[in-house]
Design goal:
Layout (H helix, E strand, L loop, with lengths): L1 E9 L2 E7 L3 E6 L8 H9 L15 E9 L4 H9 L9 E9 L4 E5 L2 E3 L1 H11 E5 L2 H4 L3 H11 L3 H25 L3 H20 L5 H13 L1 H16 L5 H13 L6 H30 L4 H20 L7 H64 L6 E13 L2 E10 L7 E2 L6 H17 L5 E5 L7 H15 L3 E5 L3 H4 L4 E9 L4 E7 L2 H13 L5 H32 L6
Parallel strand pairs: 3-13, 3-14, 8-12, 12-13
Antiparallel strand pairs: 1-2, 1-4, 4-5, 5-6, 6-7, 9-10, 10-11, 14-15
Helix pairs in contact: 6-13, 7-13, 8-12, 9-11, 10-11, 13-14, 14-15, 17-18
Length: about 575
């Protein structure tokens, strides 16, 4: 669960630090005060896309720290260990995100540099965010299948199905390629055989062309190289007038001068170094001249082989240096085509096996989906009744399809009948925004109950709801929070009154600055905030009394619920004391 959140210079929040407890935390504030910034910060900490607009105006960077208790989150602990991002304290996970004013960002997990993709992967184990516009995603059929599979805990089974589907697709494409070897491909096959035979007769080796060209230059110019090399050698180390003899004589003369002048010593050193260089050059020239041989037969062979290579390269419309790699590619293509017909029966048999394997896995998943759909229908219809839609009937339609899909052989769609006697229709055809909001909330409440994620965030999912229904919504969220942590941004006092704790955010503006601050509210301040939500800016004694009664009534109900829970545990476990 989320235990700590720190925000610096994000949007209109200058600095914010929160220690967050378990249970239900409600977050309220006037419109435009920045209630959603907390969610924006969480989103950035968990890998959402960042840009320069996220950074508070006039500051170099924004920074978010989020600490999570992962003691009861084995999946998250396993992910951290597999990615070598775990810390010495296995019960805690610390995320950090920095967004610079130029739009660039950096991320850390437990103090180690990480990618945004890693933040997203880890975040899927830490927090589940339900937004006020989530009903819009319910208008897409693919969302219905995902929600049903999550409710039925079919994620691993569907992953296995997807892998079988990918193998089946690959095998089917391979078989089609083998069957489509028509006359055009046969002509290609004959051409390849001729080209490969011609190139293999040449037997060109890697880097041979460069070696042949260098050898041809040396053989063709051998006579000139020998003559000029020997002449240069004589100049360097020949008679008394050679460079070596002259330098040697100069060094001797200079060394005999009786002086302590350091400049002459330096000159003498330079001459000695020059002498050493001339001697080294002379030795190398001697080796070079000795290695040069006049070999007309070898020269003829090299030039004929080079000519053959150049002709073949022109024939294939490539550069000579590309011929070696080209010959390898042609051989591979020929082997691939020639082996095709021999493998048609084998690939067809493999495809049949994969088809059978796909259908068997899809049948298992389909059966589990139908069982889960019945359970999901019952639970959502129960929640719809609590939300004032007792006449509505929710159905999860699971129909077989013959079209192979990565998810199996099922077509899943959520259906709803909002009036008695009317057949259930696709949710896409539901026109009422208020009805969609309540249906969405019912689905979210039910699916959240089976979630393994300890922290659930609800961002104004109560939009379009009021009165007694709003109070029920608050109770539903409060009940969910008893087994984990709920953060609920709300504009309804009936929901806010149900919170175990209450955060209030407000915005301050001056002529030059705007910022938001968030504070925990004690009981008296909660009454004032509930009164504002009930009656607006001008608070009356009647509004305050109503707010106080609402809050105290809920606190009393929560205390009674907690007492009953303890009594139930004691009845199950005799001898236990409170």
């Amino acid at each position: 669960m989320l235990t700590y959140l720190a925000i610096n210079n994000l949007a209109i929040v200058e600095q914010l630090e929160l220690d967050l407890p378990a249970g239900m935390t409600v977050i309220t504030g006037e419109t435009g005060a920045g209630k959603s910034i907390m969610l924006d910060a969480l989103g950035l900490a968990l890998g959402d896309r960042a840009d320069a607009d996220s950074v508070r105006h006039g500051t170099p960077k924004a920074e978010i720290h989020a600490h999570f208790d992962i003691t009861k989150l084995p999946q998250g602990q396993r992910w951290l260990k597999e990615n070598e991002l775990d810390s010495e304290d296995s019960s805690e996970c610390i995320l950090r995100r920095v967004i610079h004013a130029n739009g660039r960002s950096k991320a850390w997990i437990n103090g180690q540099p990480s990618s945004v993709q890693q933040l997203k992967q880890l975040g899927s184990y830490l927090i589940d965010i339900h937004g006020q516009h989530e009903h819009q995603s319910l208008l897409r059929k693919d969302t219905h299948l995902i929600l049903l599979d999550e409710f039925a805990h079919l994620e691993k089974s569907v992953q296995k199905q997807s892998q079988i589907f990918r193998d089946w697709q690959k095998c089917r494409r391979r078989l089609e390629q083998l069957k489509n070897q028509d006359s055009e491909q046969q002509a290609r096959l004959e051409l390849l055989r001729y080209q490969v035979e011609e190139l293999e007769q040449l037997a060109l080796e890697d880097q041979e062309l460069q070696a042949l060209e260098e050898e041809q230059q040396k053989l063709a110019n051998a006579e000139t190289l020998i003559a000029e090399g020997q002449a240069t050698l004589d100049l360097c180390d020949g008679d008394d007038n050679s460079a070596r003899q002259v330098l040697n004589y100069a060094c001797q003369r200079l060394s005999q001068i009786p002086t302590q002048d350091t400049r002459l010593n330096e000159i003498n050193q330079l001459l000695n170094e020059a002498l050493i260089q001339v001697e080294e050059a002379s030795r190398e020239l001697n080796y070079f001249v000795a290695s040069c041989e006049l070999d007309p037969e070898r020269l003829q062979f090299v030039e004929e082989r080079l000519s053959t290579i150049y002709q073949l390269a022109r024939k294939h419309h490539i550069l000579p240096e590309e011929l070696y790699q080209h010959s390898i590619q042609l051989r591979e293509e020929l082997d691939r085509i020639e082996s095709g017909p021999q493998n048609i029966d084998q690939v067809a048999e493999q495809l049949e096996q994969l088809t059978q394997k796909f259908r068997e896995q899809a049948a298992k998943i389909s059966q589990k989906r139908r069982t889960a759909a019945d359970k999901l229908n019952r639970q959502i219809n129960k929640q719809l009744a609590l939300l004032g839609m007792g006449n509505a009937r929710f159905e999860t339609r699971v129909q077989p399809t013959e079209q192979f899909q990565s998810t199996g052989l099922d077509d899943v769609e959520f259906m709803i009948s909002t009036n008695p006697g009317q057949p259930a229709k696709s949710m896409i055809k539901i026109a009422s925004g208020g009805e969609l909001s309540r249906i969405s909330l019912a689905i979210q409440v039910v699916t959240a109950q089976t979630s393994t994620i300890p922290t659930l965030v609800f961002d104004e999912v109560d939009v379009g709801i009021s009165g007694g229904t709003a109070e029920i919504v608050g109770k539903l969220l409060h009940d969910l929070a008893q087994s984990g942590q709920i953060l609920s941004i709300t504009h309804l006092p009936q929901v806010a009154a149900q919170g175990d704790q209450h955060l209030h955010i407000r915005k301050f503006s001056t002529k030059t600055n705007t910022k938001s601050e968030m504070h925990w509210l004690d009981e008296d301040h909660r009454v004032t905030e509930l009164a504002r939500m009930l009656g607006g800016v001008d608070l009356t004694e009647q509004t305050l009394a109503h707010a106080r009664e609402m809050l105290l009534s809920n606190l009393s109900a929560q205390a009674t619920h907690a007492t009953k829970t303890v009594q139930t545990i004691q009845a199950i476990e005799p001898g236990t004391t409170s």
